[in-house]
Design a protein that fits this description.
By secondary structure, the protein is mainly α. It has helices at residues 6-43, 47-51, 64-104, 110-119, 129-138, 145-169, 173-181, 186-197, 199-215, 218-223, 231-236, 246-266, 268-276; strands at residues 239-240, 243-244. The protein has a single domain (71-278), classed as MetI-like (MetI-like fold, Orthogonal Bundle). Helices cover 74% and strands 1% of the residues. A hairpin with a 2-residue loop joins strand 1 and strand 2 (243-244).
Length: 281
């Protein structure tokens, strides 16, 4: 009777465990990707095929749904790009100096300020929509791009301050002290030390702020109607009193998520690095 070496038994267990974990990873990825794949498939079907039961998996692709969506898609795309990029830029202009001050020159109220900023994210949007609507109406900001940029800036500012505060706090304070010994001013510490060492965090935070602004629906739906309507409002146009047009809605949704998917795919390395590594790693 032959005996199996203990090292071989342990190796077999590790191999089977790795195989099971790999299969589980693929199943989870498939569960997350299936709605997206199904939406893209429906975009190339007729309305009858999109509503068919059982579902139709083999069909002749058509582009009619995209042709119907494109005329109203381009103005909404322009509004989304302006609102997302403008609000992200403004949130960084306001948030980076605040994060730097809270991280490098904290006062005894710094933690309270950070907690207060984070608490604004806990507030349900529906609870503030009425005063916001009245404020925007009185200021003439309803259905305007400056109003949408201002709304998204206030929405993403806590995120920018919190994430950049975390990155800038990881920079060894000895670097700032050495710069002060060499005569560096506060502005030189900010532009010459904090910003260059926080670039991975800036890239990751910018990408998250862009995605949050791009996907925002509630405020866009209540504060815009025609002139400044972004893509999130554009998708809702395909739910009419005549019914829900699944194929056209899928085509519009595919066009809407496509820029974010492409941008996220291109920037995935920077995003993972920014979310995983610290400022000085």
């Amino acid at each position: 009777m032959t005996t199996v070496p203990a090292s071989r038994t342990v190796s077999d267990r590790h191999r089977w465990r790795n195989i099971l974990l790999t299969l589980l990873t693929y199943l989870i990825a498939l569960a997350f990707l299936f709605p997206l794949v199904w939406m893209i498939l429906n975009a190339f079907k007729t309305e009858a095929q999109a509503f068919a039961t059982p579902p139709v998996f083999f069909f002749t692709p058509i582009l009619d749904n995209f042709q119907r969506a494109l005329p109203t898609y381009l103005p909404a795309l322009r509004n989304s790009l302006i609102a997302a990029l403008g609000s992200t830029l403004l949130a960084f202009i306001l948030g980076l100096p605040a994060a730097f001050a809270l991280a490098v020159y904290p006062t005894r109220r710094a933690q309270g300020v950070l907690t207060w900023m984070l608490s604004t994210k806990f507030m349900p949007a529906v609870g503030v929509i009425v005063p916001l609507f009245l404020l925007f109406r009185n200021l003439g900001l309803l259905d305007t791009l400056p109003g949408l940029i201002l709304m998204y800036t206030t929405m993403n500012l806590p995120l920018v301050v919190w994430m950049m505060h975390s990155y800038m706090s990881e920079i060894p304070f000895a670097i700032y002290e050495a710069a002060k010994v060499d005569g560096a001013s506060v502005a030189q510490e900010f532009f010459g030390i904090a910003l260059p060492l926080s670039m991975p965090g800036i890239a990751a935070t910018a990408l998250l702020a862009l995605i949050f602004a791009w996907n925002e629906v509630f405020f866009a739906l209540n504060l815009t109607s025609a002139d400044a309507a972004p893509l999130s409002v554009f998708i809702g146009e395909f739910k009419t009193s005549q019914g829900l047009f699944w194929a056209q809605l899928s085509a519009a949704a595919t066009l809407t998520v496509l820029p974010v998917l492409v941008f996220g795919w291109i920037a995935q390395r920077q995003l993972v690095r920014g979310l995983s590594f610290g400022a000085v790693k």
